Amino acid sequence: MPGRNNVTISEIRKMVPGRSLFSDKNSARLVIIGGSGEYYGAPVLAANSAYNSLAALRSGAGYVSIFVPKQILRNARSFSPVLVVKQSGMEFVELTTELKHSINMANAVIIGMGIGSNANALREALKIMNYAVSHEKKIIIDADAILLIHKLKKRTKDIVITPNDSEFYRLSGIKPSRSDVVERVTAAKAISKRFGVVVALKGHINVISDGTRVKVIQPKSAALATMGTGDVLSGIIGAFLAMGTDAFYSAVASIYVHSIAGDMLYKEKGSHIIATDVINIIPEAIKRATGRK
Length: 293
Prior knowledge:
Layout: H1 9-15, E1 29-33, H2 42-56, E2 63-68, H3 73-77, E3 84-87, H4 97-105, E4 108-111, H5 119-134, E5 138-141, E6 159-161, H6 165-172, H7 181-195, E7 198-201, E8 206-209, E9 214-217, H8 229-242, H9 247-269, H10 275-290
């Protein structure tokens, strides 16, 4: 049974992908799908985390595109000039022809951040998820979209779900202790086996399992316990997936980097951080997590 942190720097160095001298911006493409009129920030934060994390390694997602409904298109585009933001639907994301094309071209897909619990939004999100799975894409499923996992026509170990404790309970009916490592490991492993996907159970004690393998990562502070940081984490996982790392290792390496970033920020700002602080420090966190210059 793993202890407080059973991941080593040497393991993380192997998990975090490098970039070929012959790669270009199309070598690792990432598509992010999410948002609603109420939650416009989440998919943008995920895209920025992918951009910043891979910029630090001088490798990774060379092209990131975000699809949001028309209602929030202007807000999403205004966040950063480096992001490619496109419309998918009016009030909620929909499986448009342009989105299908982008998924076909992508190495990995992220979906769920900020889509909300509207029945129409969830129905369209499921269509998108099934389309991506049918085209054998690596997928990160976050937020409310996690609850659709049992409706997928096909589930594989190329899918990562990233529930917090509340989402985990809504999905499984299991409410694991926040402080008991054994209980959290048992729960994450069981749900991974049940649904046939990689589970990254978020919390102060993070547990990642593919139903067989298990890793536990625990940061030294509670600095990351603030809105938006989970969306940043999904972006990091998506970036590593797009670069070719398998789903389990992508989740492990990303949570490790994310935790290092939180600990670094805690030393500087205490618990008074926001999600964009994490984005800005990802390059240095990757260097520390991997031991690379």
